[in-house]
Amino acid sequence: MESHFINKSNLDRLVKSLSKSYKIFAPVKSDNKRFYRKIGDEGLRDSVIGEIRAVEPIKSFYFPARTKIAEYFSKDDSDKKERPITIIGAKSCDLASFKVMDYVYNQEPFKDPFYISKREAGLIISSDCTLCGETCFCVAIGIMPYPTEGFDINLSEIEGGYLAETGSSKGEKIIKEYFKLFQGAEPYAQKRDSNRKKLKEDLLEHVKKSGIPAKDSIQPAFKSKFDTSLWEETSKTCVECGACNMICPACHCFILMDQKKENGFERLKMWDSCLLMSFARVAGGANPRKLLAQRMRNRFDKKFNFFPDTIGRFGCTGCGRCIEACPGKIDIRAVLSKLQVS
Amino acid sequence: MDNPYLPIKTEVLDVIEESSTIKTFRLKPETPLHFKAGQFVEMSIPGKGEAPFTPSSSHYEKDKLEITIMKAGRITSMIHNLKKGDIVGLRGPYGKEYPLPEFEGKEILLVGGGVGLAPLRALFLALAHDIEKYKSVLFCCGSKTPSDIIYKDCVLDKWQSLDKKRIKFRITVDRKDDSWKGNVGLVTTTLDKLDINLKNSVSIVCGPPIMMKFATFKLLEVGYKPEQIYLSMEKNMSCGIGKCGHCRLGNFYACKDGPVFRYDKIRHIHEIWD
Which of A73, A112, A306 is the closest to B243 by Cβ? Predict the structure, then answer.
């Protein structure tokens, strides 16, 4: 891990140059929200590198909502080369979601080549958060508002530029190649650390009022509430739209759909939602989660019980997207806080 | 690219009618699948979709396989319309097989109900192939009525004379008809008065969820320990490779950690019988 400083116009030069070999996306602001926009020769323009995470979950780029994964029984053309993806301005919560996705799709004995090839070829230029979003609660579940791992280069906004830290050999290679655009980081390191500390404190203060149990007590609290009316209460306003699953950066479930095509058949992999009645149903009609309350509980079970047991971390990144997306005003923070009340 | 979602082109060689709702399909994939008894495959109707099934034929047959399918939902209804010569897709094999080495030297009890006899047939054929490795096999089969018994020529005839000393059968129907001279009663009634040394026995159960539940409870009642009971869990196994999330069972995925589970490993999971 090494640090350098890059000013804003040099970052723009770097991005313009990288856009020749990568498909680059960076957030842009609209209606006080951030959305990814493709960056071309024109450079970063009004892209927002800092602030908070974008509306779209980062999984959209590596595991799109709809992917053609097989064209059977004809020649497999899935080796077709695409330009690799670069995401600029991914946030710490986005990187945390990769921990879940990477685990799922890299798991032996059958890896998912579609996700893996995009991840391996891609480049992540992440950035520190500089604001605390209304629904953000990352710090409550142990994720910092600044990336600590999982990036190739991380940018911390500072005095007209960025402190750029490398997190992989891929990142180091880029900095070496473009070394003329960078300068020494020494004068900025302390300022970055104090910015981080300040934002972390602000966020801790912000999440305090949510009453989320301490990180290590969430899983045991969930287990103790398994057979309670909490899930029925929570699901009262759920309309089973699946928005929470779609917008969640760590929800990885999908459904395979086959369809006829002009000269054969194709198979699609599409995002699926565990809140839907049909999710676990089998052909014979048996359904282990017939009730909405069971499906609601299942969502929390997966995130706060299954993933801690299997990968030692939550299947939730504290990004708060599901809170914004839910038409039933179901607030994951409030549900977590109710785990604590006996 | 090694694409795990790509089906292998497969020809339907024959269709055998087992009962009014169950058919066995004899299949020949372009590339052999090399499954082991207990593992499953995903069978697809081109352009329509796919569903998971455990082959019912012997895993010693290398280039062909049989799958026994009950007409139950959208895909299985389409499969039931297949004819000799039709083309389907197959992917797999997936999941864990029956742990045959752990069964060696033991008295083996197979308990099957309805179409649940399919995976047990593959297991039975594997056991029978090397029968000298096992102390004995008792195959308890339950069906709703005599006309619902599948693999009739095997269960009621051919298999009966395989190795009379080591292999025995208990066949029962829930409701008899005029032709039936055998036992009447649920498959659990065949588990009374077992002439088995329970300490040196394992039991393998496969059937509809309700039958699995009561058969398991009955086995516990007669003295089997949870670690001596193997169950085939029916879950919505869609991708087959532990990614799509549909078949999660506690901290397991039925497709990758099962579908065969030892009961002691899953008994604490909520909703296992639903």
Answer: A112
